[in-house]
Design goal:
This protein has two helices and ten strands, in the order ββββββββββαα. The chain is mainly β.
Length: 227
């Protein structure tokens, strides 16, 4: 692959397992700007993971790359982005999101990546018990300026079993809460179109103070009253 001495690389402070997701401004379904995503070792040269899908403008080409990789806690890694074709525009705006790792400096705005930036998806953020947004909850806007997430829900749920108590946290906990609300709406309003369900959720949401919908909390907090 060649050396990386001329690359601008950013350090990652790792946990046991990491993910990195790259999204950039291009035509969804016919992406022609071809970027690749690499995770490098502590020497900033050795590739330990890469995502190098082809984007050539053909039907079905998507402007994102995803990497998943094992890491040793406390060891420094690097993330690098490279265009396959050096003649591609250097002004291309891209969005890099890492999970289970710390990327510095962190820009939370615009951190929602595919598939959360889909036109068809209701994207859910996380809400802490004190009313603040979960620190790893993605923020909008999307790459083309749309509001995301649409909703937030509790990001910490206590699960009680036989002899154990477990705290389920993050947007992985918040999303099922909204899915449950959607299921209840479908029961109450059957048949109901996706547009009717989303409108019902957004218009009956518990808005944060007088601020209204925004790219941190969407339309509501954790209370979703039903008519």
């Amino acid at each position: 692959i060649g050396g990386y001495s001329g690359w601008g690389v950013t350090p990652l402070q790792s946990s046991r397992f990491g993910q990195a997701h790259l999204r950039w401004d291009d035509v969804w379904g016919r992406a022609s700007i071809d970027l690749d995503l690499y995770i490098l070792g502590a020497d900033a040269r050795t590739v330990i993971a890469a995502s190098t899908d082809i984007q050539n403008g053909s039907n079905g080409m998507l402007p994102f790359e995803d990497t998943f990789f094992n890491m040793v806690a406390g060891r420094q890694y690097y993330v690098a982005i490279r265009a396959k074709d050096p003649s591609q525009p250097i002004s291309t705006r891209f969005y890099l999101f890492v999970d289970d790792a710390v990327l510095s400096p962190v820009a939370m705005e615009g951190s929602i990546t595919a598939p959360g930036d889909s036109f068809q998806a209701i994207t859910v953020g996380g809400l802490e018990r004190d009313g603040t947004i979960y620190d790893r909850s993605g923020r909008g806007p999307t790459w083309d300026g749309r509001l995301k997430p649409e909703l937030v829900a509790p990001s910490r749920i206590i699960l009680n079993g036989r002899g154990f108590t477990y705290e389920f946290e993050g947007t992985s906990a918040a999303t099922p809460a909204v899915a449950r609300a959607v299921a209840l709406l479908r029961q109450l309003c059957s048949p109901a179109s996706p547009e009717h369900i989303s409108t019902s959720l957004f218009t009956n949401a518990h808005v944060i103070g007088d601020i209204g919908p925004g790219n941190y909390s969407g339309y509501c907090l954790d209370v979703i009253p039903f008519p």
